[in-house]
Amino acid sequence: MDVYQTEEEQVESLKKWWAENSRSIIFGVGIGLFAIFGWQSWKEHAHTQAVESSGLYEQMVKAVKNDNPEAAIQLSHEINKTYGDTPYVGLAGLQKAKIELEQSKRKEAIATLMGVADSANNNSIQHIARLRAFRLRVGDADMTAVINDIDDVIAEKNGINPGEFIGQYEAVKGDAYRLLGDVKNARYSYIAALRNATLDKRLMQLKLDDLGPPPKSEQQNTGALTPKETAK
């Protein structure tokens, strides 16, 4: 700076230099500070959020057990509003839908479940909510629409991957076909469910057996399950 003849020239030079370099300096310092303090701060914030949301969810569960649905619903709203980035939002939604169903509010329960399916940040909770909604819709005689929606899930449309839940989706589809009187497609769905089952395969086998043996014209297409497959 001693090359400048006046103080004003020094000040103007500093202003110009700062204008040209301030963003990169601040950005660099910001990265350094985040590396030192930001990660730790974020971890502490995430831990606090998890603890607080867990506490509210436990209160909600107790309210349900104590037959206080109004308090449980209020806690569900609070969790959803304040702790939207935690898995407890989805769990609270499942509890809320259960309460609504017990209050004979089937449409509200379905809407709540689909809201969880569309927004929960936990993949398993999303599938559980969607499957429960589909089962309720089947019970409300919305079979054809449910079959179409399940086919979309199985085809991985809209970015949804059924993953390990594919067997459960096939089982619900089988129930829908059966209620429609479409034994052939119900059998196909139950066989697919049985081969991809992650839950109780005995129930799937009972549903399949209850349809009776397939006619000869279907046997080659369905492919009879071997005892080894049914025992898995």
Oligomer: single chain
Number of helical runs? Answer: 11
Tell me the overall shape.
Answer: elongated
Spell the H/E element sequence: HHHHHHHHHHH
In whole angstroms, how far apart are the ends?
82 Å
Which band does the percent of strand residues land in?
A: under 5%
- Report the mean per-residue pLDDT as an integer: 80
Spans with pLDDT under 50 lasting ≥5 residues?
1-12, 226-232
How many strand segments?
0
Structural class: mainly alpha
Percentage of residues in helical conformation: over 70%
**Rounded radius of gyration (Å):** 28 Å
Largest beta-sheet details: none
Features:
single chain; 232 residues; mainly alpha; Serine Threonine Protein Phosphatase 5, Tetratricopeptide repeat; 11 helices; elongated
Explain what this protein looks like in three dimensions.
The protein has helices spanning 7-65, 69-82, 88-102, 106-119, 123-139, 143-154, 166-179, 183-195, 201-210, 216-222, 227-231. By secondary structure, the protein is an all-alpha fold.
Give the secondary structure arrangement, pairings included:
Layout: H1 7-65, H2 69-82, H3 88-102, H4 106-119, H5 123-139, H6 143-154, H7 166-179, H8 183-195, H9 201-210, H10 216-222, H11 227-231
Helix pairs in contact: 1-2, 1-3, 2-3, 3-4, 4-5, 5-7, 6-7, 7-8, 8-9
